[in-house]
Design a protein that fits this description.
Shape: flat
Number of domains: 4
Number of strands: 29
Helix content: 10-25%
Radius of gyration: 37 Å
Distance between the termini: 89 Å
Length: about 550
């Protein structure tokens, strides 16, 4: 009987120790051996590999076994275990006979210390709210008293002007102070209530987790003689994940860009991660492990479909539609007789970051931000402006050789000259060999775009109407250092043979004819200003309307 139960397991002998690697698949209903020696242990989580929407937890425990059959009950495991992913490794002179999951409804998960901390915080904030409301009530009574005395003073007809002014000034000052205090306390109450709501939500999440039943794993081991060893288990859970973010700082244009690479990790696995070694990976563990198969790659001339889509039954569908329907059936993708109308390719990469120091990530609550890497990136800087849309100059940091740092898509907080300027989104998949980062508006550069009235006209010439437009763009550098700038504007582009556009002046700007976009690359010394002109005429039949503004 024992021999048959050993069939699912792979056992490898390494020198004097027996190294066991057990992959459990659907063993929750497995019958367990009777055992003379039963021990309950709580393995400690030692390492966690966090994926974007899941995590692999590794726990270990030292064990001592008596001669014969031993039963180990491993308690305190997450209730969110993917049981198909569980692996057990053992080291020692013993043999694993069986393994199986059971739900521990009686003990449940150990209460989180954070619950009591949150309860205390909520209690303190509730007391502060009540105190603020009490003081607000007193202030409102004072306000009512002042208003009542104002009416009494107004009825005193014998009061001279000097005393009346003193009373009025006192009333005005006192009432203003009281109402300001009422307003400020109202703001404080609202802020406290917001914080109270946030803490209550965290408490509810923790209490929900603490009321869950836990999983326990039962292992039956056999030792020919009393021995010691260790057990290591790892399993996948879905209630965790991470996402990257960045802090990007530029203190001076003569200095490199400072980039802090962060991992934001959260977990609701029902068990705390205390002083664990963390790794962050962008892999997807739910992907299958089968090696891809290459099928013949047939080329042919591409003929675009010329029919319009309409609902058809299978009998009336054209041949090309029938082939498309067949291609969607994964069971016959490998058929060589089916032509391939297009090709697509994907490159799946996996990056993993190992954090040097152990961290504690509490169950529930907000994501914890961990700085993984601090990088100094050499960069060139230039300004970009589109005064037609916004009269502001945007500072752009251009970074080359950024690929070596294994950056991922993520949100970035931007800081320029020790000032927070906003957020941006790094979309690495869309970036070429140069990474351009916008650092926001720089108020040290002033732009104007004004219509030149003396060069703006509308007149009729024969059957046509001729409209002239001219704009003056002025840019001034109020900074203490020279700057480089790319400035963009546009002229209209005709899409009708009866509408013609003639460009009369561009001040040296380069035009992209298909789009009408005009760009100027200019250098401005400190305090220098520059004026650019863009002028054009549009001719079209006078009985037609063309929108030019």
């Amino acid at each position: 009987m024992e021999q048959s139960l050993l069939i699912p397991f792979k056992i490898k002998v390494m020198k004097k120790n027996l190294f066991l690697s057990i992959v459990l698949s659907g063993l929750s209903g497995l019958s367990l051996f009777a055992a003379d020696n039963i021990k309950t242990i709580n393995p400690k989580i030692t390492h966690v590999t966090v994926f974007p929407s899941s995590a692999q937890l590794t726990s270990s425990a030292d064990i001592s076994l008596a001669q014969g059959t031993n039963t180990l009950i491993l308690q305190g495991l997450s209730p969110y275990i993917d049981k198909q992913s569980l692996q057990v490794k053992g080291k020692g002179k013993f043999m694993v006979l069986s393994a199986g999951f059971q739900e521990n409804i009686i003990t449940g998960l150990q209460d989180n210390v954070e619950i009591e901390v949150l309860k205390k915080k909520i209690e303190d904030i509730t007391g502060k709210i009540e105190e603020e409301k009490l003081q607000t009530g007193i202030l409102k009574e004072e306000e009512s008293f002042l208003i009542s005395n104002k009416e009494v003073g107004g009825k005193n007809e014998s009061m001279d002007a000097a005393n009346f002014k003193l009373l009025f000034d006192f009333y005005k000052t006192s009432l203003s102070q009281v109402r300001t205090e009422i307003y400020n306390r109202g703001i404080k109450i609202r802020d406290l209530e917001k914080e109270q709501s946030k803490l209550k939500a965290q408490l509810q999440a923790l209490q929900t987790g603490s009321n869950l039943s836990s999983n326990q794993l039962t292992l039956v081991l056999k030792a020919d003689a009393a021995c010691t060893g260790s057990i290591e288990i790892n399993y996948l859970v879905q209630a965790a994940g991470w996402y990257p973010s960045y802090d990007i700082r530029v203190n001076k244009l003569s200095e490199p860009v400072s980039l802090i690479y962060k991992a934001n990790v959260y977990q609701n696995t029902g068990v705390p991660w205390e002083n664990v070694n963390l790794s962050f990976s962008n892999a997807n563990p739910s992907l299958g492990g089968n090696v891809p198969i290459l099928y013949p790659w047939y080329l042919n001339f591409y003929v675009p479909n010329t029919y319009s889509y309409q609902k058809m039954d299978k009998k009336s569908a054209p041949a090309v539609m029938a082939e498309s329907a067949i291609m969607e059936d994964s069971d016959i993708r490998g058929m060589a007789s089916i032509p391939v109308g297009f090709t697509s390719s994907s490159n799946t990469t996996s990056l993993e970051f190992q954090v040097d120091l152990p961290y504690s990530i509490p169950n529930g609550g907000e994501a914890k931000s961990i700085d993984m890497m601090h990088i100094e990136l050499p960069a060139s800087f230039r300004y970009q402006a589109v005064p037609k849309s916004e009269k502001a100059a945007f500072l752009i940091a251009r970074i080359s050789d950024w690929q070596q740092y294994d950056l991922l898509d993520g949100e970035a907080n931007l800081y320029f000259e020790n000032t927070y300027v906003g957020k941006s989104q790094l979309s690495i998949q869309m970036i070429s060999d140069t990474l351009d980062i916008s650092l926001g508006r720089d108020m040290g550069i002033v732009l104007k775009r004004e219509k030149r009235k003396d060069y703006t006209s509308e007149k009729f010439i024969g059957p046509n109407k001729v409209v002239a437009r001219s704009w003056e763009i002025t840019v001034k550098n109020n900074k203490k250092e020279a700057v480089k700038m790319q400035l963009s504007d546009q002229v209209p582009v005709s899409q009708n043979k009866d509408i013609t556009v003639e460009i009369t002046e561009l001040s040296g700007g380069k035009i992209n004819a298909p789009t009408g976009i005009v760009t100027w690359d200019i250098n401005l010394d400190a305090g220098q200003s520059k004026t650019l002109i863009i002028s054009y005429t549009v001719k079209f039949p006078k009985d037609s309307n063309v929108l030019l503004e």
